[in-house]
Amino acid sequence: MLQYVARRLILTLPVLFGILLISFMLTHISGDPTDLILSPDTPDEARELFRRKHGLDQPIWVQFYQFCVHALQGDFGNSLRFNEPATKLVLERLGATTELAVTAMLLAILVGVPAGVIAAYRRNTAADVAVRTITLLGQAVPSFYLGILTIIIFAVWLRWLPSGGRGTWLHLILPATTLALNLVALIARTTRSCMLDVLNQDYIRTARAKGLGESWIVWVHALRNAFIPVLTVIGLQVGLLMGGVVVTETVFSWPGVGRLAIQAIYARDFPVVQAVVLFFALIFVGVNLIVDLLYAVLDPRIGYR
Amino acid sequence: MKNTIRKLLLTGMLSVATLAGAPAATLTVAQNFDPQTLWPNGTTASDNLNAGSAIVEALFWVDPHGEEFKPLLATSYELEDDTAVLVKLREGVKFTNDEPMNADAVVHSFNVFIDKEKSPAYARVSDPFASIEKVDDLTVRIKLKYPFPPIELALSQLYITPPGYWNEVGLEAYGQKPVGTGPFVFDTWARDDRLVMKANADYWGKLPEGIDEIVWRPVPDDIARAAGLTTGEYDVASNLAVTSAMELENNPDAKLVPVPSYRIYQIILSSLEEHKSPLMDKKVRQALNYAVDKQAIIDNLFFGNAVALKGQVLREPQIGFNPDLEDYPYDPEKAKQLLAEAGYPDGFEITYKFPSGRYAQDREVSEAVAGMLTEVGVKTNMVVLEPGEFLRQLRAKELQPMAFVGLAPQDDPDLQVSQYHSSWRYSYMNSPELDALIDAGKQEMDRDKRVQIYRDAMTLMRDEAPIIFLYGGVDFYAVTNRLENFMARGDGRFFFYDTRLQE
Predict the structure, then answer these.
(1) Is the pLDDT reported for residue B196 higher than 90?
(2) For the CA atoms of A93, A97, A99, A104, what is the dihedral angle to 10 degrees?
(3) Which segments constitute the Solute-binding protein family domain (chain B) (predicted)?
(4) CATH number for the segment(s) B261-473
């Protein structure tokens, strides 16, 4: 098991290097940040000083080499806009993003899984149709639109919730729900189809024949067996969550990493973009490693060597 | 279950009520971005400056009410000759860390200001400044490299910092926790969330009435800014979209403050040899001006909230605005006739570039213009550009032969018109007559003569038609009814001097 984890972690290194290379190339071929940070009528002399100060006057391969050397030490360089270390800017906002993402994920699991189970168990009833309709909508409505809609309804019309910012748990409701809705849809739909499959298995009939209670059969026997694909989906959707955070944090003025990322991208603030990309990649890889390890917990037949 | 939900919602409502009804003495301002630095000479972005200049003050300021130049840390200035300016400083002013605001502080701040590495964003206005000398404790003499008529513009952007504290913490840290002489002092800053400033009890001047605390909130989404203003979470919201503004107009608790912007929208018509196109012919450029119904764009895309240009790039309150000029009227027949005279009776095809997401309604305006040009036979191949790439192309002189831009230079005719000088990095025209006028206006210290020079330049530009004259933008702010006397400038700047917040 430990050997497996070690091997997986080592395999992660080329992945992260690839991510660094791609993000570096994509950001650098997209243009020169000087044009965005200094106004167009800035004299050339001042622009050259700015470019030299941030190493933008070097050949691109020198920039990449420098960047890799420093990145290995956890230093992504100073933000071009804030003049502060990019790593610091990301870490400062990590708490807010974690709070939002974890709440959204828990919400998605707590709503999505039971909804999927009920839809499967009461297949083709009104409950099933309701779950399917709502999840379809949840997957179809883009979160920037949903976010604005919830602000107008719950903040402006009803005055129940604040329109944005971070503070009390009330501030968390709208952004977390908006972020969760997409995931709820996916989790519910996956749970439903996996449950349908499992509920037709022989061992479920056996369990019924043994006289086990119906809810015990559904929520323990069936769900545990149906859960592995759901877990995979959850692991993969961490990526979606990271993407969703970028939009949701902007709409709800949430002071997190996603909003930092979008502003950095617009301003071609390379160091910050790279720090955020690598940070998101680390989380994605980490969560999926944990998901793989959880398979063994759910299904004793799976072992890792 | 029902009861629990009701209870939860009720607690929710109560908490929101407490939030909204925060102490009357707090003023919450929602801007687009969190400042990158609170040192005003660190960037020219208005969101930074609005917050930073509540703490750090300049020698002079330009009051948004009437755009009048007024003393602040200086009491007066005097031109000793064309290249020497004597500045008298205000007596008895201290920074909030007790350092004195005197000639030494101004000398220090000046030297940082003219250092193009430390203040690259101000390189253009600081360029005429050569050196400074302390005359006595409250007088300094500034030497210029060349006569510079917009000297007031430059003096109003020189922000004064305490040399002791500055040298102790350095430029970056100063921007994160500034010490100044202003009506507010830095309190706390949770990045991207809230920046809190408290009123400066020892302020040398008159504090804004009734404001004990200002909270600056970055709210990137403009619909969310308008929503927060409606719910009372914010007292001031800047940079609203025209659609949000129209909705807020009917809100009884808030005032809408529309401010004509310094940004002039235009379509570049490159007449340069190197950009060979039908636009090299003056008649074609004039024809395109006749072909575009500018009023229809203003009325339909901005609900009337844009300023028609009078066939010139200078705004009505500016020095050199020519009151005798009128814009090209909308006349597609005349356009067709001019095109035929120029040898294009059936029109032509041309590349037309525009940004998406850089300016208000940029895509919509560009598409409307393209549609109108098609009516007179000019078929455009539209190229949409991401804002960053758009700015790169502007500077690289690649926005040719035809492109939509909104240029917002600082408030002086030279800074505005120099952009059409043949030597300017992104000028898309080459007219020796215009160059001569620009060169003359640049160093003319006599105001009346300067006015005449720019009036002549405007007449020439209208005839040469290096651009399609479109419209001047309007910025929208909304403020709570409790805040009195709020006003902003066309460059997105606002101050709280002379404002009053009611209980």
Answers:
(1) yes
(2) 170
(3) 68-420
(4) 3.10.105.10
Q: Per the CB < 8 Å rule, is B395 touching A81?
A: no
What was the pLDDT predicted at B19?
47
This model of the complex carries an ipTM of 0.85
Q: Where along chain B do its domains lie?
A: 4-13+35-173, 261-473
Which CATH number characterizes residue A122's domain?
A: 1.10.3720.10
Token pair 């883009």 is at which residue?
A: A142
Number of domains forming the structure of chain A: 1
Residues B45 and B36: their CA atoms lie apart, in Å, by 9
Q: What is the residue type of B186? A: F
List, in sequence order, every residue forming a beta bridge with B260; answer none if it has no partner. B474
Asked if the Cβ–Cβ distance from A38 to B409 is below 8 Å, we say: no
Provide the mean pLDDT of chain B. Answer: 92
Q: What is the CA radius of gyration of chain A?
A: 24
Which chain A residue's Cα is nearest to B10? A160
Range of the domain at A219: 93-298
Say whether pLDDT at B86 is over 90: yes
> Kind and range of the H or E element at B82?
none
Q: Which residues of B touch A96 (CB under 8 A)?
A: 193
Task: Kindly report the CATH class assigned to B4-13+35-173.
Answer: alpha beta
- A164 CB near a chain B CB, below 8 Å? yes
Question: How far does A295 lie from chain B, in Å, by closest CA?
Answer: 36
- pLDDT mean over B177-187: 97
